[in-house]
Amino acid sequence: MVVFRLRRDCGAAAEADFFAAAQALARIEGVRELECFRQISPKCRFQHGITMKFDDEGAYRRYCEHPEHVSFVEERWKIEVEDFMEIDLTLRS
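and the corresponding structure tokens:
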């Protein structure tokens, strides 16, 4: 999961385009679920969140190296995201 804040100059159309591009990452093999969220609490400095579930840890590693993910990070994430916190978790057995 990742929570983040988009750059201030991002308008509604650009924001919608960013999330459409993010949701397209769900097509990558091994991604089981991808959901996008909007923060509703004024107590949190982050505006948005994305959660993803993967088939297994191997699928997560392959996703991280997948060309579509790498392209999204370079061409969208690094440009449009101002601040973020990423948390990568696995279920306790």
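(Above: one complete record from the training split.) The radius of gyration is 14 Å.
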